[in-house]
UniProtKB/TrEMBL annotation:
GO terms for molecular function: ditrans,polycis-polyprenyl diphosphate synthase [(2E,6E)-farnesyl diphosphate specific] activity. InterPro entries: UPP_synth-like (IPR001441), UPP_synth-like_sf (IPR036424). Keywords: Transferase. It comes from the Bacteria. The lineage of its organism: Bacteria, Pseudomonadati, Pseudomonadota, Alphaproteobacteria, Candidatus Pelagibacterales. Pfam families: Prenyltransf (PF01255). This is Isoprenyl transferase. GO terms for biological process: polyprenol biosynthetic process. It comes from Candidatus Fonsibacter lacus.
């Protein structure tokens, strides 16, 4: 089977999942990012050249300030931790 050269993922529903499962939207964002870590590694292993992650929409600016700050904290943490290995 031929794999695509480009995969795009819209990260939607992590906060709702975290709220439902843990009563905490931020836990959903955290676990969503852990899944992306695996996706990135699988794309590299499968020789998929391009991966687009739609992680933050203009509507996300309407979220509570603390949630926005946590999302950007997670983004920075992810890139800091993984930049040299991907």
């Amino acid at each position: 089977m031929k794999l695509p050269s480009h995969i795009a993922i819209i990260m939607d529903g992590n906060g709702r999942w975290g709220l439902k499962k843990y009563n905490d939207r931020n836990k959903g964002h955290y676990y969503g990012l852990q899944n992306i870590n695996k996706v990135v590694k699988d794309c590299i292993k499968s020789n998929i050249k391009y991966l687009t992650l739609y992680t933050f929409s203009t509507e996300n600016w309407n979220r509570p300030k603390k949630e926005i700050e946590y999302l950007f904290f997670l983004f920075k943490l992810f890139y800091k931790k993984n930049f040299n290995s991907i």
